[in-house]
Every structure is written in C-alpha cells, then in structure tokens.
Amino acid sequence: xxxxxxxxxxxxxxxxxxxxxxxxxxxxxxxxxxxxxxxxxxxxxxxxxxxxxxxxxxxxxxxxxxxxxxxxxxxxxxxxxxxxxxxxxxxxxxxxxxxxxxxxxxxxxxxxxxxxxxxxxxxxxxxxxxxxxxxxxxxxxxxxxxxxxxxxxxxxxxxxxxxxxxxxxxxxxxxxxxxxxxxxxxxxxxxxxxxxxxxxxxxxxxxxxxxxxxxxxxxxxxxxxxxxxxxxxxxxxxxxxxxxxxxxxxxxxxxxxxxxxxxxxxxxxxxxxxxxxxxxxxxxxxxxxxxxxxxxxxxxxxxxxxxxxxxxxxxxxxxxxxxxxxxxxxxxxxxxxxxxxxxxxxxxxxxxxxxxxxxxxxxxxxxxxxxxxxxxxxxxxxxxxxxxxxxxxxxxxxxxxxxxxxxxxxxxxxxxxxxxxxxxxxxxxxxxxxxxxxxxxxxxxxxxxxxxxxxxxxxx
Length: 460
Fold this sequence. Notes:
Blueprint: H1 2-12, H2 30-43, H3 49-53, H4 84-124, H5 128-139, H6 154-168, H7 174-190, H8 195-211, H9 215-240, H10 265-268, H11 271-277, H12 293-303, H13 308-324, H14 343-356, H15 361-383, H16 399-404, H17 418-439, H18 450-456
Helix pairs in contact: 1-4, 2-4, 4-5, 4-6, 4-14, 5-14, 5-15, 6-7, 6-8, 7-8, 7-9, 8-9, 8-13, 12-14, 12-17, 13-14
C-alpha cells in the first residue's frame, strides 16, 4: 500500500505546475476553493470579501477572477461551494500557498490508490499482484491522475466513497459503522451533488444490517445520519441562505436548484454513453482501461459475489447523477469530473473481474500503459507551454488520443455521423457486456448436481 501510494503521488504531482489556462494556474471553481481555504486559515470564516478585495487570488489566477458569490445583506461574500475541501486545504495553503494545496491533493491521490489496493485484496479476494496492476492502471491515468492536482472535491469524494465501500464490505461493528458513517457524512460536505451516491451506499448498509438481523445497528445508523442531515441543513441555511451552497451564488438568482438547469431527460440521455466514449470528455478518450469496466460490471452483476451491491448501486447512482442532474458534461474542467466520485467502484469491479478471468489481465496492463503515457504526454506538453489543462487540452499530440478521436462520437459539436458512431459504440459496449456476462458463467465443474441441490434443500 505504501509503495502504491508513493508511486501514484509522485506520478501525478508534476501536473501541479501545469497551467489551467494561459492566464491562470487555476480556473473555474479552483481559485474559489483556494480563496475560501485562505479565508478559513486566516479569518476562520467563509467570507471571502476581504480576500477578493485584496486580490489574494492573484498568485494562482493572474487575471481578474469572475464573480461567483452573491453579496449578502451584511456585505459578506460566500463562495457557492461546500466547505469541506477548503477546510482540508486550509493549513497546507496557509503554509505553502496554492502549490501546497495542489500537492496535498496529490498525496490524497496516493492514499486513494493505496486504499483501493487494500480493499481489493481484503474485501474482494483479489490477489495482491492483480490488485496492483488494476489500481496502478487506473490511478496513473486521467481522470483520477488529473484530479490528483486539480482543486476540486472529486478526489476527496472518491476517497470517501472508497472508505465507505471498505467499511461496508467488512464487519460493520462499532468501528466499521462509525467509519462508514463519517465517510457518508463527508460526501455532501464536499459537495451536495454527491448526496445520491451517499444515499445509495446508505441503502446498501441498511438493507444489509436488516437482513442480517441487526436492526439495532440499522436504527443507530439511520438515526445518526438523520441528525447529520439536520445539522447540514441548519448550517447551510445559516451560512449560505439555503439548503445548498448554490443559494449564495450570483448566477442562481432564480433559485438554487437552477444550478441543474431545465430538466431535459431526453436531451441528456446521450450522456449515458458519452461519459464513457465522448470524443473529448469521455473516459476512454484518455484512459482505455475504463472500457474494460463494462464487461467487468456485467460479470459482477451475473456472479454477484459478496459486496456486489456496494459497488454497483453507488456506481449507478453516480452515473445517473452525472447524466441527468449535472448541468453539462462538457464543462470548464478536465474530462470525467462528474464521475470521478464513483470510479473507485469501477476500479474494484475491474480488479475482481481480472482476478477471476486471467485472460483479461494483459488487456489491463496494455490499456494501463497507454493511459499512463497519455497522461504523462499531456502533462509534459502543458509544462512546456504548448497546451493548457483546461482550455485546449484536446489539441494534445498524445498518440492514443489522436488515434481514437476519429472513431469517437462528438457530443458537443455533433457533426455529421455522430448518431452513427453512437449506435456503433452502443453495439460495441453491448458486445463487451455480453462477453463479461458470459465470462461469469459457472463452469461445468462448479455447477452443483441435482443430488447436491436436493440434499441442500432437504430432499425437495
């Protein structure tokens, strides 16, 4: 675990020096998180009005910082973002500036990789060698590697989800229950958009406790989380003026729920596919290893080993949130942001599949190498000043990305042929899922005989 964590942290750290845009080291929400971290460290307050007036953002955002926060009646300005990430970065930013904040996230990326290895081995019976291969293949490629230095709550949320899965798939004693509860509580404090993923994990925990006959612990968990939800609501109304931080945003004058835009189920449905294979913002365009998650999930759904629900339910909740709730998939950020929170569940599913189907391990290795080299190539170009990590990253000359782009559907510009490519990729993914499903079929030797079944069921 230590070696894995160090390798991943060192691998992702150089991206901290890469520029987000030509006019800023950080952009979009990043400088606002950093400015709140400065305010928490120096003033013990979420009010960033004095930091904005003093231009405290200049070291990491040289140009004028767009206004996100609404001016309150008392003259204060509160950034419309949940406070846990700035709280985690407050001390590093106060002692080492924006760079220390980014490097703290790199350490967090290393911690996530280490915990994924532990969880795969100790909770899902994956051999250490296979766990290392799968976790390194996933953690050294974008988006996990990229968000190891970008100032967003995605990496911290992914770590919280992994902690919750590790606790949920082990014995939920007093310590396990407390660990699980803390991880769940942390998710909405990192961002309220993670609430559906947290709810999915809670459902799995409560159902498991009730089925196991431990109604007392189920009631204890439900009661504790209800109190935490009430505290969340009270604090947000007091600090932000609403149940979510978006109530303090200058852009949401029609109400905090307008952050999700107008409901458009049909219009957003193509994201179900695009989040994986979109030409610019899909996972596969940057890390082909995530293509293998499709057959892995199908195999997991068929075999249903212990812990299946703890992986598939939050993964589904996160993917549906990114599809139908998020305002956009093609945003002012690095691709994959909306699904980073549930990628640990995908990585663990892939680790389990690779452990049970040895023939896929070579594909994981090859895809992992391609993804890691693509990440390194992009970072090297950004450090050299040829591209930036947010504005023009798609102009990279990375071999994999340039090679795969022509056959991926473009959900942003939707040029002619997009629908055809979408249909073709649906067929490819369906075939991959069928392959995974078939790979999980019990072998002839493992199928119980009729006599054994009769004996197990009392001769019936």
